[in-house]
Write a structure and sequence with these properties.
Blueprint: E1 9-14, H1 20-32, E2 37-42, H2 51-58, H3 74-78, E3 82-85, E4 99-102, H4 113-137
Parallel strand pairs: 1-2, 1-3, 3-4
């Protein structure tokens, strides 16, 4: 088992850090536990997490109601091994030696929980693959 400093670190980035990146971070934390260090941020963070996203995650018994959108910093990118962007475009800083993935997913902003569920499920499928990949590599 890797020590905390040797754990792979993943940063999820979307524009508002109120939907996709929050779901991805919560799902990775839920599925990988302490085997992975997880962060999320937004290039233009919203004031609160999307209530439909909170509701969709609660359906999986994952409570993100206390999460707060965070601003994307260069430090967060530098501290991460894998940076997964979800529609933040050119606003994500790029540093050499980092692994970047871009997950094209619909933006749940302004959508009801019915529209958020399929986005959540797509994210969960990708997270399960990511967990297998990064935890077996370490």
């Amino acid at each position: 088992m890797p020590s905390p400093s040797e754990r792979p670190s993943v940063l999820f980035v979307c524009v508002h850090n109120a939907g996709r990146s929050q779901m991805a971070a919560a799902l990775l934390t839920h599925l990988a536990g302490d085997r992975v260090e997880v962060r999320s941020a937004g290039s233009a963070p919203a004031d609160t997490v999307n209530p439909a996203v909170v509701e969709a995650m609660a359906e999986l018994d994952i409570d993100i109601s206390a999460e707060v959108p965070k601003v994307l910093t260069a430090e967060a990118v530098k501290a991460s091994d894998v940076v997964i962007t979800m529609g933040c475009g050119d606003t994500c800083p790029v540093f050499p030696g980092k692994r970047y993935l871009d997950w094209e997913l619909p933006d749940p902003a302004g959508q009801g929980v019915e529209a958020v569920r399929p986005i959540r499920d797509q994210i969960e499928k990708r997270i399960r693959g990511l967990v297998d990949e990064i935890t077996s590599a370490s």
